[in-house]
Amino acid sequence: MADLVRSIPSMVDGLKSGQRKILFCSFKRNFVSQAKVAQFSGYVSEHSAYHHGQFGIRSQGVKDHASGRYIFTCLSPITRYIFPKDDDILLGYLKEDGQQIELTLLVS
Predict the structure, then answer these.
(1) Which of 43, 70, 81, 93 is catalytic?
(2) How many independent structural domains does the chain possess?
């Protein structure tokens, strides 16, 4: 069941829980300047209780990947147009061990 929860996108926002954790951490960090993927994945793992392996396809044995120290990423400026900051008050937070780990839509 837990695998299905991680694998099937939500009908509400179209995101899987791992993708939602990445957005949560991007907003939390105000991630507008570039950072190494290896560093950001560590940040996501630490701040969102991501327990399910590595990011990307290296864990699947693919040999044509670039090393994490050479890949950079940042939050696209359009992201806050798609997910406006004013809408954050409509969101709730999933918690694990008292730590906020992921954004979720409040359903009444």
Answers:
(1) 70
(2) 1
Evaluate whether 104 touches 48 at the Cβ level (below 8 Å).
Answer: no
Residue 13's domain comprises 2-105
Task: Summarize the chain as % helix, strand, coil (round to 5).
Answer: 40, 15, 45
User: Structure pTM?
Assistant: 0.70
What the block records as the tokens of 82 is: 């798609």
Q: What is the pLDDT of residues 47-100, one digit of tens each?
A: 777 765 564 555 555 555 566 667 888 888 898 898 888 887 777 777 777 777
Q: What is the torsion angle, in degrees rounded to the nearest 10, for the CA atoms of residue 93, residue 27, residue 18 and residue 39? A: -130
Q: Among this protein's residues, is 70 annotated catalytic?
A: yes
What letter does residue 57 receive in the DSSP assignment?
Answer: S
CB of 88 within 8 A of CB of 73? no
